[in-house]
Amino acid sequence: MIKASNWFAPKWQHSDAAIRVEAVACSHDDGLLQALPQIAASDPDTSVRLAALKRCQQSQTFLACLASETDPDNRQLIITRLLEHNAALTAASAEQLQQLTTLLTELQQWQGKANSWAQQQIETLAKQAHCAAVRKLALNCVSKQGLLGDLYCQEQDPQLRSLILASIDQTSTLERISKQLRKHNKVLYQAYLQRLTELQPSAPTAEQAKLQQAQQLLAEFESLLHGKQSPAATMSLQDALGQAHKRWEAIQLGTESAAAQSLQTRWQAAISILQQAATAPPKAPAQDSDDSSAQTDSAAAANNDPTGAATPDQPQVSLQRLAAQLDALLARRCKHEQQLQQHLQPWREQWRAQWQKLNAISRADQQLQDQLVNRIAAEQQRLQAKAETKHASLQQLQLTLEQALELASDGKLLLACGLNAQLQQQIEQLAGPQQQQFNSQHAASLRQLQTALDELRKWQRWSDNQQRRGLLKTLREAKDNELSMDALLNLVKDSKHSWQLLETSEIQAGLRPLGKDHALNRQFHGVCAMLMRSAKPFLKNRNTLRQERATIILELFQATDELLADSQVKSTALLQQKRKISAAFQDVGNVAGEQRKDIIAGLRQRQNQLAERIKQLSADIENDKRRLIRLAEQLAHNTDHHSAVNEAKQLQRQWQQLGVLPRKLEQTLWEAFRAPLDPLFAEQDQQRQQQQADIQEQLQQQETIVTALTTLLSEPDSQLPTLRGQFEELQQQFRQLAKPERRLQQQLRQLSDQFESRLQQALQQRENQYWQASATSALQRQQAIETFLQSATQQQADLDEQLLAMSPAELQTHLQAQSEQARMACIAAEFMAGLPSPAADRQTRMEYQVNRLSQHLRDKEQQSPDQQLRLIRERWYASMPMLPADHVKLKQRFEQAITAAEKLIRH
Q1: Are 24 and 39 in contact (CB under 8 A)?
Q2: 567: which DSSP letter?
Q3: Quick check: 786 and 742 in contact, CB under 8 A?
């Protein structure tokens, strides 16, 4: 039956949690939207709170819910929303930062799988937060070195970059991010070098000293390369390079580490550029004699004209423009030297004309001309080297073709095929014109090579088939010969290997494999399968045994590796595993021969690792136990005996968790550890005895109270209501006693339940007697009025004086009013029981419901169902006497409704 409280309430206030969940998740009622924060914080059902949290948006709501929420899934949703809100902030206030600090502290305290989820949320916040202050708080909770390295590369805030770099203490992470920083961000790369230097030990190793010397020398020549400094005035660039080579070779820098390889690469690049600049010839732009005479004339003219003298610091603007034009010409990357000369001819004429117009040639003009000459010479050298490379490649192709023809004529098919494949690959790598030129020039040789290879392939196939037939013959004869199983297996194995070699050689020679459907292949595999079937029982037993032994030993290897990798492993487990490794040496003979060597090496390696690990753990255990002895000796100075005993028990637990040492050393340390703890435990025993005496005294008091309660229960039921206060007082005295015994507590509960049961029965019996007396009195009044109305003489002896004083009309009116009151009592009982009323009383029942609802909204204190039922009963009995006809009809309605109402209340 639907509760009356759900009739007029909205679904999100329904008593059924499933209905509330659906309404909270989907409804758009204005009242619901306003009440969402209150529902998310205080609804008794977890799923209803979760549905409300999913629709909330304000961070204050989530903060309020976080303080009271206990469900793990709901808390994760709240924290996720709070972190997303903080990640979206562009500027955070002091209050928001304080709230975020508290939240991150809580996340760091989570355990197990929840801790993994919390760390993932913190890392996401450190990556994606817009506000630098928020990222800083998240970064303080991040300890993964790899993640810190990635964040250092992408962080834009300088202060946070410094904080992240200071948190990285793993050199491998620094070396990894250095590859990204060196070419993209020099500032961060310098900071990385400084941090790497800080992480190095105070006394550098020989390798570190070599790296420092190499970095210093490389810095000098990179400065020379970038023009930040020049070689000494008394030393040419070529001499400086010679000394640099000697200094670099003296360092003897290896290539084992990533830093050394990086320095070697930088050194080769810098030294090659400087070597090219040192060996470039100082040529003038023009290569004929007229250019030099023109320069001499222009220089002489410039000396005679003081007004046109050039400044020594900066070349002429016109010359700079021509230098820019030269850079553009050289950037086109001409394909050959003739094309370069064609492009440079107009530029040279412009340069010559402009040079002749100079009044005076300054030092800057001369240096610019030397630089341009070197650039042109370098481009010419590049084109010459390119042409020489092409010529050399064509010569190499021709030489390869000749070698392939020679090998083919000698019958060396595999070598000739290899050279042919190499030749075809090199031809395909040539440019289109060069490829056509080479193919047209050597077409006859290429055809001759292919013809010779095809002929050799035919002879190769014929020879291989002859060998295959010989292998088949040998296998067929082995079937009739009495060979041992090992000899038979070796024969099949060798035959398969020879057959596979023949196929491999044919594939290398460019022949197609025979294929599975070829007659020889089918015959060979059929004979091998027949021989293997005869040896199957033998192989099955031997292979099964060997495989089982090998599997057991490999599982032992895996278990040993897991123990060695466990940082929390105990020495007892290592000792037990070492004994298993020693016993495994005896089973090596049962393993296949090809596996024995590896298994023996693995056993010895793990045996040594276990011995070393046990030695390390024993030293650590001894140090920890000596530390516990010192802590135990300090307990004598603790004045709080209870605290000292608890600390002693904690020390004992730590001692037991550490592990076991050799027996003699273990006994000595144990005696030293127990000496300061024994007096503490002796005093604790005395206190325990005193507590036991107190407990015994309290037990006697508890038994006395239980005996008194048992005596009260021996009284008759009619006296129990008067004894209720005394019974409750005895119960209160029992509860005030410290540490009551469980047996007596259970007995007290049984006595209390028995007393309450008998008391309720007595009260119910008293109430039944009261209602029975009320019903009897009301029935007598009704019978009296019926007798009075039906009697011809209208006897008045049993009527009330008030009724006797009424006239017949007044009496009729009074009885009608009583009947109306009885009808209202029936309607109230039917409403309370949920039964329908007759059609004639529906309007009256509707008015009753409206009046009752108004009174319910008006009154602060609501009546209980029992009180309402009592009022209805009193109203019914007070309605008698009534009209006899109404009494007959209403009595049946009332009894039916009141019975249903009582049943509804009791259930």
Answers
A1: yes
A2: T
A3: no
Burial of 459 (0-12, 13-18, 19+ CB in 10 A): exposed
**Dihedral of alpha carbons 838, 840, 843, 844, sign:** negative
Q: How far apart are the C-alpha atoms of 707 and 898, rounded to whole Å?
A: 43
pLDDT digits (tens, 9 = 90+) for 327-355: 888 887 777 777 788 888 888 888 888 88
**CA 146/CA 169 separation, integer angstroms:** 11
Task: Name residues whose C-beta falls within 8 Å of residue 59's C-beta, 6 or more positions apart in sequence.
Answer: 81, 82, 85
Contact between 747 and 730 under an 8 Å Cβ cutoff? The reply is: no
**How far is C-alpha 554 from the chain's CA centre?**
31
Provide CB contacts within 8 A for 352, sequence distance 6+.
Answer: 285, 286, 291, 294
Tokens representing residue 436 in the block:
């056509």
Query: Strand, helix or coil at 604?
Result: helix
Contact 901, 833 (CB under 8 A): yes
Contact 666, 660 (CB under 8 A): yes
Supply the pLDDT for residue 1: 39
Q: Report d(CA 664, CA 13) in Å as an integer.
A: 74
CA 524 to chain centre: 56
Contact 285, 369 (CB under 8 A): yes
- Please write down the long-range contacts of 204-210, taking CB distance under 8 Å and 24 or more positions apart: 207/254, 207/257, 207/260, 210/251, 210/252, 210/253, 210/254, 210/260
Contact (Cβ atoms closer than 8 angstroms) between residue 606 and residue 646: no
d(CA 782, CA 876): 12
pTM: 0.29
How does pLDDT run across 531-546, given as a tens digit for each residue? 877 777 766 666 677 7
> What value does the mean pLDDT take over residues 753-765?
80
Lowest mean pLDDT among 279-288, 367-376, 559-568, 711-720: 279-288
The arithmetic mean of pLDDT across residues 669-695, rounded, is 81
694-750 confidence digits (pLDDT tens): 777 778 878 888 888 888 777 787 777 777 777 878 878 777 777 777 788 788 888
Whether 290 and 248 have beta carbons less than 8 Å apart is answered as: no
Please report, to the nearest 10 degrees, the dihedral formed by the alpha carbons of residues 298, 278, 242, 237 taken in order. 40
User: Could you tell me the CA-to-CA distances from 546 to 539, 543, 595 in Å, in that order?
Assistant: 10, 5, 10
What 3-state class would DSSP assign to 846?
Answer: helix
